[in-house]
Amino acid sequence: MAGVRRTWRGCRALLLAALFLCVPVQSDRDLRAEAGKAAAPKSAYVLKIPFGLEDVAGYIPADNPLTAEKVELGKLLFFDMRLSFNNTVSCGSCHLPHLAWTDGRQFGLGIHGQPASRNSQTIVNRVYSTEQLWDGKRPSLESQAKNPLTKPNRMGMPSAEALVAKLNAIPGYREWFQKVFGTDVTIDGVAKAIAAFERTILSGNSPADRYDMGGEENAISDSAKRGLALFQGKARCTRCHSGFNFSDEKFHNLGIDWDKDQVDVGRYLASKDPEDIGAFKTPTLREISLTAPYMHDGRFLTLKEVIDFYDKGGIQNPHLSNLIIPLNLTDQEKADLVEYMRSLNGEGLQMAPPVEFPR
Predict the structure, then answer these.
(1) Which fold would CATH assign to domain 57-198?
(2) Chain centroid to CA 162
């Protein structure tokens, strides 16, 4: 029996040796690198919520939490023109901080100066929204972040794979992605980083907030106070521009395009519901005086023009929202409404683009 045990111990030793020879041996350097990667700390991103806004925690997806490193990476990607085919445009080309993250044009311009089909929307307070774009076709900020990258008239990359290869050829971006995601550049990582950055762009603590919610009597003018009463009453603005973000996040047909030969069917493209023909998303009114021109086709240059349009009851068509009716506002009432909307400009959204990018 003792001989059998000795024989088994010898066989087991040989077996373990053979198995060891079959396993790749990692160097101390490899092991340290892996341990460092697994333990790489992610700094929590402390987002300051301006007065008047809700806490954003319930609006951030579980699979894309905010971290300081991810937000910083997203900011770099957002403003880096190398994400376009010919290095001439970035996300920031159509979303300029000093214009409340719009571009001041009727239609945004892509590579080779090609126009987009719709007006560039602000990304202020987009953390509070799921469906993105005028027609809500993109169900999340992550989905929307991918949208312009491969569109021929926007950033023009031939494919997501081409963009990933381009960014992976930049050592600095590979380092950033390893730090944030533990991988080289991926299209999902690009989208998650950009979306994380966009969720930090907030506007609140406006004079209107301080008056209406904070009780600061002198925060807005008497004209703006009259405008608030109209906004909530005769002008019927809160039927769509409701809540702390001044948007019901729904889609309505106002008649825009029905005075032209060709109609943009809007939400119908995404929903295929005939009730959605010609319907477009209600935009936030925060920072509204900085985001002209207005409507999805950028047809109105001033807030006065917008109010005149609503005052007439929109443009009649078979799908006009039943919320849109003639208002019979006086010139003074229109001026007061404009004054109130100007008081919705707040703070928290200003920031400077990066001056250096990964190399």
Answers:
(1) Cytochrome Bc1 Complex; Chain D, domain 2 (1.10.760)
(2) 23
- Give 190-193's long-range contacts (Cβ < 8 A, gap of 24+): 190/77, 190/83, 190/145, 190/146, 190/149, 190/163, 190/164, 191/142, 191/143, 191/145, 191/146, 192/64, 192/70, 192/74, 192/142, 192/145, 193/70, 193/71, 193/73, 193/74, 193/77
Contact 244, 54 (CB under 8 A): yes
Where do the structural domains in the chain lie, given as residue ranges? 57-198, 207-342
Smallest Cα–Cα separation from 237: which of 250, 227, 225? 227
pLDDT digits (tens, 9 = 90+) for 144-198: 999 999 999 999 999 999 999 999 999 999 999 999 999 999 999 999 999 999 9
β-pair partners for 38: none
CATH fold group of domain 207-342: Cytochrome Bc1 Complex; Chain D, domain 2 (1.10.760)
Q: State how far Cα 48 lies from the chain centre.
A: 18
Instruction: Give the list of residues 6+ apart from residue 283 with CB closer than 8 angstroms, or none.
Output: 121, 122, 247, 291
Query: Tens of pLDDT along 309-345?
Result: 999 999 999 999 999 999 999 999 999 999 999 999 9
DSSP 8-state secondary structure symbol assigned to residue 182: S
Is 251 exposed, middle or buried (CB count within 10 Å of its CB: 0-12, 13-18, 19+)?
buried
Distance from C-alpha of 247 to C-alpha of 125, rounded to nearest angstrom: 11
Can you give the length of the chain in residues?
359
Q: Report pTM.
A: 0.87
Classify residue 261 by its DSSP letter.
S
pLDDT tens column, 246-296 = 999 999 999 999 999 999 999 999 999 999 999 999 999 999 999 999 999
